[in-house]
Specification:
The chain is α+β, with helices and mostly antiparallel strands. It contains 13 helices and 17 strands. The protein has a seven-stranded antiparallel beta sheet with strand order 15-14-13-12-11-17-16. The protein has a five-stranded mixed beta sheet with strand order 4-3-9-7-8, sandwiched between helices. Strands 1-2-5 form a three-stranded mixed beta sheet. Helix 1 runs antiparallel to helix 2.
Length: 378
């Protein structure tokens, strides 16, 4: 069995890598770093296991915390960590899932790779005393619970138990509409104090081996190491990130405006950018629903979800969070093909609903890989 035990020296490179592949979302690096530091201070062991090394008969679940970043920030790190030592909602909801399933959970797997949402799952694994699977449902971050490789490979999102900050427990036992559980969960958390946690996608080890996007946590760690090394040695950290990811520099410029649009009942941030350097005279437009969902350059679509648009600081190669964007922010936009398992999920019948571009305002679009849309891959 191949196990990896994290050390405090892994914190910075892991957070660096997770922030890049989070595509603007996945939670705050500040909070992710604080969670990992707290776990080491408490003496807990953070470990991950290779996907292929788990038993076919293992019981695996995914999950995460839900709620508003504003609520976390209002409480502050010390208060949240103290609260989680008394009541860790993510641990509680995992125990609820065990009761529903009637068996012990052997492994947890992150819903997404992101600078907060992956560390919090490592914390869950540490508190359960089990290793986290080196992988996730996307190989990036995503705004909605049904947007996963799992759902397109025969794994049901439900049952999905939720616990909010006030201790209310709600269980979605079954939902034919794959978007229902996510939308209900957000309402529950909003009503219940603005924070909470869920569990979902119960599966066997055998199913996990077919549905999980593998090696994404270790990949983020190695990506972070490559970027940090380039920065320390005076090399181009953006080039290091692009080289590691197998991506393409699609645009470089400065944010000129940020606005909000409403389409079909959903709200999105629209960031407009003016090109710099080799992209001088060109304009880009990002559609953001927590994460970057679509990029057009000079009104021509170049990439859209689930392929990645990573927003990087030009000087440092750091991943930029969408909540930190403001007019004048310089960005390098890097396009990266998503994992083949995610593409298979998008093409499935349920995946066409779960991943529908209508969820971010483009019901007319049908998925096209970045390789067919963007220069540099052709």
């Amino acid at each position: 069995m191949s196990l990896y035990a994290f050390s405090p020296e892994d914190i910075e490179p892991l957070i660096e890598g997770l922030a890049i592949v989070g595509t603007g979302g996945g939670g705050s690096p500040y909070w992710g770093r604080a969670i990992l530091e707290h776990e080491f201070c408490m003496g807990r062991t953070l470990a991950m296991i290779d996907l292929e090394d788990i038993s076919d008969q293992a019981t695996v679940v995914s999950g995460g915390i839900m709620g508003s970043v504003k609520v976390l920030e209002a409480m502050g790190v010390e208060e949240v960590m103290r609260h989680w030592e008394e009541r860790f909602e993510l641990l509680e909801v995992t125990r609820v899932m065990e009761t529903i399933l009637g068996r012990k959970i052997d492994h947890v797997v992150p819903f997404e790779v992101g600078a907060l949402n992956t560390p919090v799952m490592l914390s869950l694994g540490a508190r359960l005393g089990i290793p986290v699977i080196d992988g996730d449902a996307l190989g990036r971050s995503a705004p909605e619970t049904q947007m996963t490789s799992f759902i397109g490979h025969g794994v049901s999102l439900t049952p999905m138990p939720l616990i909010d900050y006030q201790g209310n427990v709600v269980i979605v036992h079954e939902a034919p509409d794959p978007t229902y559980a996510d939308e209900l969960g957000r309402w529950v958390v909003t009503k219940g104090g603005g924070m909470g946690a869920n569990n979902h996608y119960p599966m066997s080890g055998r199913q996990a081996k077919e549905a999980v996007v593998p090696d994404t946590i270790s990949g983020a760690l190695e990506l972070g190491r490559a970027v940090l090394q380039a920065r320390e040695e005076g090399d181009d950290p953006v080039a290091a990130a692009i080289g590691f990811l197998g991506g393409v520099r699609l645009f470089a410029g400065t944010v000129t405006s940020l606005g909000e649009e409403e389409k079909m009942g959903f709200y999105y941030t629209i960031a407009s950018l003016e090109g710099r350097g080799e992209f001088s005279g060109r304009m880009a437009r990002l559609v953001i629903k927590n994460e970057t969902m679509l990029l057009s350059i000079d009104e021509e679509i170049k990439v859209f979800f689930p392929d990645l648009v990573c927003m990087l600081e030009p000087a440092t190669g750091r991943g930029v969070m969408s909540v930190d964007l403001e007019v004048g922010t310089p960005l390098v936009l890097v396009g990266v093909p998503c994992h083949q398992r995610l593409r298979e999920a998008v093409q499935s019948e349920i995946g066409k609903v779960a991943f529908s571009p209508a969820r971010y305002g483009y019901p007319e679009l049908k998925y096209q890989p970045i390789e067919t849309l963007a220069e540099g891959f052709r």
